[in-house]
Amino acid sequence: MLEKGILYLVPTPIGNLEDITLRALRILKEVDLIVCEDTRQTIKLLNNFQIKKPLLSFYTYNQSRRIPKIIEELENSKNLALVSDSGTPGISDPGYFLIKAAIENNIQVISLPGPNAVLTSLVASGLATNGFVFLGFLKRKPGKMRKELQRAGALGKTIVFYESPLRTKKTLSLCREVFPGGIKVVIARELTKKFEEFIRGSLDEVINRIKDREIKGEVVILIEPDENVKSKEIIDD
Fold first, then answer.
1. Which of 166, 229, 172 is nearest to 199 (CA)?
2. How do residues 84-139 score in pLDDT, each as one tens digit?
């Protein structure tokens, strides 16, 4: 009976290529196949470090038909690496479903530590780090988004979520409908890249600072609810 392969979860840089670990490079060189979101992005990383390995795309729209094939490869003693376009795989991406399937099939999953936009932004934000709530990408309907933020705010922990640069202003305006204008907010953008920026201040101050400028790059928004101030009551749309 063949021994099953291993699924390695390999974090990749969120901006600066120097952030990849020696262990991550070794695993990428040793595995039989690399499963990735976008082969065009991953090949750039591999080329930079002179790594040549077969790639298999795995993203939201093909995950249901890809998972059985990937599990079959693992069942046939192949070692695979799962990577996302940037950061740690499995966080707000379909890698979660593959990891879950591997565990259900008694396949060993080994997670490597490495780059992550959530923790990178949180520890440099200046907001409380003794507890936080990560929301991934917020729901797109305003009513559901408000409820999601209200529930998170009720926990009294720092809220962290991803956002598109094109929606950042609109999302912060919606936050103003949920939270008092005086709560602390941080926008972290282009983390580890040349134009990395942290925009810090009260919610009202941050909204005012970005109202006449264009927001570019990957964005993380962090909010520190005031434990002494309740969020506004939300009425369903």
1. 172
2. 999 999 998 889 999 999 999 999 999 999 999 999 999 999 999 999 999 999 99
Give the residues across from 202 on adjacent strands.
Answer: 184
- In angstroms, the CA 218 to CA 190 distance is 5
Record the tokens describing residue 85, joined without a space.
Answer: 């376009």
User: How far is the C-alpha of 18 from the C-alpha of 15, rounded, in Å?
Assistant: 9
Q: How far is CA 23 from the centre of its chain?
A: 21
Q: At 109, is the secondary structure helix, strand, or coil?
A: strand
Question: Which residue stretches of 127-180 are H helix?
Answer: 142-153, 168-178
pTM: 0.90
Q: 81 and 28 in contact (C-beta within 8 Å)?
A: yes
Helix (H, G, I), strand (E, B) or coil at 222: strand
- What gap in Å lies between CA 59 and CA 92, rounded to an integer? 11
Collapsing DSSP to helix, strand or coil, 146 comes out as helix
Domains of the chain listed by start with CATH number: 6-111 (3.40.1010.10), 117-224 (3.30.950.10)
Residue 78 C-beta-side C-alpha neighbours within 13 Å: 18
